[in-house]
Amino acid sequence: MGIWARQVTPRLVARGTEPERIRRLRARTCAGLHGEVVELGFGSGANLGLYPAEVTRVVAVEPSDVGWGLGAEGRARSAVPVVRGGLDGQRLDLPDASADAVLATFTLCTIPDVARALQEVRRVLRPGGRLHFLEHGLSPDEGVQRWQRRLEPVQRRVFDGCHLTRPIDRLVEDSGLVLESVERDYALTPSLARPWVYAYLGRAHRA
Question: Taking every annotated instance into account, which residue ranges of this chain make up the domain Methyltransferase type (predicted)?
Fold first, then answer.
């Protein structure tokens, strides 16, 4: 991980002004979470304030010390206890079947071995436990796909390995999780933003 990824990217993400529509999608993704929740790619805490009252604790998996530090004030104000539970979504330092739910928002795009990370999600979920996800990824529109493939090399360099072309729903299914529901649509309306904002909002569970 280079200096840009370590020092600059977390600050860009933390300081970015998120559109209200994205905030509403985050809230819908968090709805229904309960008990012990593992959040992949916690960052500086974009989902703080959106966890339901039924969540007893959030175990935050976050590789960036900078991102974690930027979220200190928000964590201190959080009604839900948040503890740092590891640095790598590909190798969760958590016992088998120990989580009631896993939350991933705009995270699976960046993890290098996303298939391994999803296998780890399946491992740590209790039977019946759910993965709640909101991710951007591969568009079904051929014209947008072409731009996604052209832009992806730059995107990966600037935003710490972020991919634009991952088929999120298929990756979740391939992990052995049972896909319950998924909505697919462009999260924002400007056509120029389409390569970055094709969103997958869904849930899957461990059988």
Answer: 39-132
